[in-house]
Design brief:
This protein is of the alpha+beta class and about 350 residues long. The protein is about 35% helix and about 15% strand. The chain has nine helices and ten strands. A five-stranded antiparallel β-sheet has the order 1-2-3-5-4, with helices on both faces. A three-stranded antiparallel β-sheet has the order 6-8-9. The N and C termini lie far apart (about 45 Å).
Length: about 350
Amino acid sequence: MTVSVSVARALSAAAHDAARRPAPRPPRSATPTPCPCARPHILADRPDGTVVRHGDVVAKSHAPDTDLGALTARVATAAHPLLTGILLSPLPVPAAKGDARVTVLHGRPLTLWPYGTPVDPEDPDAAPWEDAATLLARLHGVAPGALQLPAPLPPMRGPAKAARALARMQAAEPHPAAPTVLRAWTRLPAWARGEAPSPHDRAALCHGDLHLGQLVRHPPHAAAEGHWLLIDVDDMGVGDPAWDLARPAAWYAAGLLAPDIWDRFLGTYRAAGGTAVCPDGGDPWPQLDVPARALTVQTAALALAKSAAENRPLDEVEEMMIEACARIVALPAELESGATS
């Protein structure tokens, strides 16, 4: 665990206050009162965020270096009526003034959210790939300019996240596979590494970190009635929507996602009006190839960093991502699909 007991209790108290106040009122003190209930139910505890549940409310403590202005714009996007039915809407923070949805607690930004039922990792056949595709297509169809936010949304962080993963790998204990991952990284164009502006003039609203862990059913009490919604706006921004399809595309290319699931996902995305790839059933890889390779390298780099930190060998899935990097390295330059453009 990286979170302290006091922080976990403070997060639980903030969620507790939100759960018991249908019409939140700002208290005299910005510090939440200690929650008298059972110990906090910690859903996630990572350097980039800690998530604590209390009843039907979830409190999230974001990374200390989070850009508060950018987070505020992202949370305002999730609360916007145009995103109803696409993104889980945040809750007002009782410790903040008015109906503010972002505050600072123990030096870290705090947001509150309704609890939703996550995807069941023990039932892969029930994974909502088609729902994810439809939600992405709807998200990409919302014009960022139509939101009229108090502050503009930042750029989508796909290339920056990939670069950060490489930095983590290079800072970790050396691994025999690291040179392969680094060579695959150098085969990407500079814009995909976050070192140059993107040549693609696309300004769609992007989730920024799409995977099945980013979907919940809400309301959570009746799964048959609750709708799937996207969660986690920490990486949301404006940019090329192909990056939102990059992870499933990378999994498909690496052999981790079955061809029929990929076909269903992509077909549903197109049928719902998704703009990341050509809509006429043509080859999607001119748009997806470079982002998918970048996500492959990002995933492999994080696997090496995590395995070093946990002092364990790579698992089968991680090995497959390393092998995918080796295939990227082995590709002839003329088949790099614009990797140097």
